[in-house]
Structure formats: structure tokens, C-alpha cells
Amino acid sequence: MSDSKSMPGLFITFEGGEGAGKTSQIKNLHDKLEKQGYTVLLTREPGGTAGAEAIRHVILSGNAEKFGPEVEAMLFAAARADHVAQLIRPALIAGNIVLCDRFYDSTRVYQGASGKVSMEYLHSLERIACEDVMPDMTLILDLPVEEGMKRAHSRRDENTAPDRFEKEALAAQQTRREAFRKIAESEPERCKLIDANGSEKKVAKRVWNEVAPLLKRKQLTNG
Ligand code: TYD
Predict the structure, then answer these.
(1) In this predicted model, what pLDDT tens digit does every residue of 54-87 receive, in sequence order?
(2) Measuring CA to CA, which residue among 151, 164, 166 is closest to residue 198?
(3) How far is the CA of 46 from the centre of ligand 1 (A)?
(4) CATH number, position 17
(5) How many whole angstroms from 45 Cα to the centroid of ligand 1?
(6) How many domains, the chain?
(7) Residue 222 within any structural domain of the chain
(8) Tens of pLDDT along 13-30?
């Protein structure tokens, strides 16, 4: 089976815990790349297609929690399968840059690091959902948990209830931070740990320092 490395496009995923600034950084990178003439698709998980957004609603409302962590992981994978097939793979085949807010590392961390779902099970789901589509680069925004929670709380307006995952305690967030750092350590070719401390501008510069050499290597055409 060929992999996404042989597709002409470029697939970059963003990962990190609550309040790490993924959403603003991914938007910054999107705007910068578009200004340079690249065709860029900005998307997110769970979601990105009508089918996957419907599954997102079921998961984040907490309605799937009662079915247990394995079914929940399966639902994330089902959303991902639709997203990959309908949106991500076609964009990569067309030679576009795809920026995705969360991807399979979030399942490894949020569902896997809980210890309730085995990594073997999760890897099987990855193979089914993604087939030949794997990120060329994953940027993991890393921030102390207390700082991330502070940012997440100040961002959320008072009328918005926290989602199912935001409700969990500091200890769970700490476990996730460590799990993300472990992924970065074990796959240094693909994963780059980005220090998310400091101003948005500073962090954007760190992101760009990782992405620029990749663009050169891939020799994507722009303009
Ligand atoms: P979202 O509102 O998109 O949060 P964030 O800004 O943190 O990305 O909600 C997505 C939530 O779903 C988030 O808490 C992480 C969780 N999640 C998983 O548990 N597993 C997954 O595979 C994915 C993609 C997300």
C-alpha cells in the first residue's frame, strides 16, 4: 500500500491539551501559507465533514460515554474515516496543504492514556480509519497544565458549558500532557514539540521554524 508521503500534498496536524493555543496557531499558519500562494485546507477533529460533525455532536455531548471507552474510541475513528475519505485524502491527492486541528494522536492520548483502551486496539482503528493517510508532521503544543486551564477558562464565555473532556480534573490533564510528550519523544521524525509559553507571535515563530524546512523538502508549488 502506498502512503500519504507519496501523495503530492502536505498533511500537518496540530495537537495539545486544553488552552495550549492550537486553534489560533493553526489559523496563523493557514493565513501565512495562503498569503504565500499555497492552497490550504483548514479542518478539525472530531468533525470536518457533515457525517463527522454529526458524530462529534454525539461524542462531545457526553451521550456516548455510557457505551464505554472502546465504543467512544470507535466513534472517533468512524468520524475520522469519513473525514479522511471525503476531505483529507482528496486534498492531498490534489497537492494541497491540509492543516488539521487534532488527529489520531488525540485518540492515543485522550482514549489511550486513560489506560482503559489498549494501544493495540487503537492502532487497529487507525489502520481502518486512515488507511494510507498519515501526517507528514505533527506539531504538539506543550504548556504546563495549570497555565492551559487558566487560558481555557478565560476564553470560554460564561454561557458555554465545558465539554465532556474539559470537565476532567487537573490530574487527567497532566497525564495527557505526559502522553503527548511521550509521543513526541518516540516519533521525533514526525512529531515536533512546540513550547506554547509566551506570546502568540513567539509561538507562531516556533511553528514556522518547523514548517518552513518541510515545505522546502516537499517542494510544493505555490502561486
Ligand atoms: P474541541 O472543542 O475541538 O476542543 P479543543 O479546542 O481542545 O481541540 O473538542 C474536542 C475534544 O475531543 C477535546 O477535548 C479532545 C477530545 N478528543 C478525543 O478525546 N479524542 C479524539 O480522537 C479527538 C480528535 C478529540
Answers:
(1) 999 999 999 998 999 999 999 999 999 999 999 9
(2) 151
(3) 7
(4) 3.40.50.300
(5) 7
(6) 1
(7) no
(8) 999 998 899 999 999 999
